[in-house]
Amino acid sequence: MPRVYTVEFENITLANASGDIDILSIDAATDKPTAIKTIVLKTTSELAEAQEEWLRLRVIRGHTTVGSGGSSATARPLSANDSAYGGTVRTNDTTIASAGTAVNLWSDALQVRNGYELWLPPEDWFWTAGADLLVVRLMAAVTDDVVCNGSITIVEVP
Q: What is the value of pTM for the model shown?
């Protein structure tokens, strides 16, 4: 039976000077396919922002070298009976993932004052396995620094 985990991040800065940012990258454990089930991003610094800035998002599979500049994150099991997540997760990498054969799976945009929520049915989950990373990327620099919180739910098949 699949195990469900949540990866949350709080008070991270998407800096204007950073350009593209890997908001989340997932490196699945060997023989344990992993999927993204939900993506929720909320900005906490742009509540009175005069600009109606849209931030382009993309989910990418296929990079083989993880980025840097961010931090390791903990995927926490939603069930108290599940074991720890087998892969590794990173958030807010300012040097984006590279190498491999990247495939763009999905693109959308986040309105900076409204935040973003994506809840996918199982047949639409974004899957990865083996050496291919699964990345949620901000595709361009923000106009000014943005502070955000978020949670991404992932599923692992043991």
A: 0.91
Domain hosting 67: range is 3-156
Q: pLDDT confidence of 50, banded at 50, 70, 90? A: low
Radius of gyration of the chain from Cα atoms? 15
Cα–Cα distance for residue pair 137/81, rounded to 1 Å? 31
DSSP per-residue letters across 23-82: EEEEEPPTT--EEEEEEEEEESS-TT-SS--EEEEEEEE---B--BSSEEE--EESSTTS
| In the block, residue with structure tokens 């840097």 | 68
Residue 150's pLDDT band (cuts 50, 70, 90): very high
Domain count, the chain: 1
